[in-house]
Specification:
about 80% helix; mainly alpha; binds zinc ion
Length: about 90
């Protein structure tokens, strides 16, 4: 029973850190001890390891999607021109 509760607490601890770990989030930096503990847990716990795999797959899918869906450079240039005209009119 104590082992089960300890495992649940570790999973909960890990769940709050997985995204920061995968994103290397500088706003929520994990120290070396936390990284080592989390990596060991992800390697040993199928549920948390699976969750990390799902986050990695989602991040890869989003990167792939955004790479294929870049805005038309002509449209971006027209938007820049329009913004510059608006700024110029505002300062005149
Ligand atoms: Zn876990």
């Amino acid at each position: 029973m104590i082992t089960m509760v300890r495992g649940m607490l570790t999973c909960r601890w890990a769940a709050r850190r997985i995204q920061h770990y995968l994103d290397a989030d500088p706003a929520a930096h994990l120290d070396a001890v936390e990284v080592a503990r989390l990596e060991a847990h992800l390697a040993a716990c199928a549920r948390c390891g699976g969750r990390a795999d799902q986050y990695r797959a989602l991040a890869a899918a989003l990167r792939s999607w955004s790479d294929r869906n870049t805005p038309d450079p002509r449209l971006v240039a027209r938007m820049h021109d329009a913004a510059e005209r608006i700024v110029a009119q505002g300062s005149a």
